[in-house]
Structures are given as structure tokens and as C-alpha cells.
Design goal:
The chain is an all-alpha fold. Helices cover about 55% and strands about 0% of the residues. The protein has helices at about 5-25, 30-35, 55-75. Helix 1 runs parallel beside helix 3 (about 55-75). The longest helix has 21 residues, at about 5-25. The protein is globular, with a radius of gyration of 15 Å.
């Protein structure tokens, strides 16, 4: 019988948080290069580091959602063109 594990949600949650944060940055017109992080590898996004847990992953998700909400709320004209690379 499968057992629920925090590892089952942290793997897909980390890259989803990174993407949402990146997209919120685009809405705030931050440059693509300014948002790049070089302190991790792609594999790091799908694995749980020793200091990571489900509570922290969910808190990061909530922070990313709040950033997105604030970014969208701060755009007076949602018809504003957003640069696409």
C-alpha cells in the first residue's frame, strides 16, 4: 500500500514555485537575466535537500502566490505589454 510522504510533493512543488516567482518577476518587468539563479542545478529542483521539509515547501509556495498576487494587483492596466523572450 502506498504511503504518503513529503518527498512526493516537494519534488514537483519546488520547480512550480520557481516558475511562479519567475512569472511574477516578468509581470513586474524584471529582466530575464536579473532573475536567473546560478546557485542550484536543475536536479536540485526535484530533490529534497537535508534542510528542506514539507512545511518549508508549502511556505515557499504561499510566498510565491503572495508575490504573484501583489504583482498583478500592482498593474494598473492589465493590457500592458509584457516582454516575451
Amino acid at each position: 500500500m502506498p504511503v504518503a510522504s513529503e518527498l512526493s510533493i516537494i519534488g514537483p512543488l519546488k520547480p512550480a514555485v520557481r516558475r511562479e516567482t519567475f512569472r511574477a518577476g516578468l509581470a513586474l518587468l524584471k529582466s530575464h537575466d536579473a532573475q536567473r539563479s546560478t546557485d542550484h542545478s536543475d536536479a536540485d529542483e526535484f530533490t529534497r535537500a537535508p534542510d528542506e521539509n514539507l512545511v518549508g515547501a508549502l511556505a515557499a509556495r504561499a510566498a510565491a502566490a503572495a508575490l504573484t498576487d501583489a504583482a498583478i494587483a500592482g498593474i494598473a492596466d492589465l493590457g500592458l505589454a509584457v516582454p516575451v523572450r
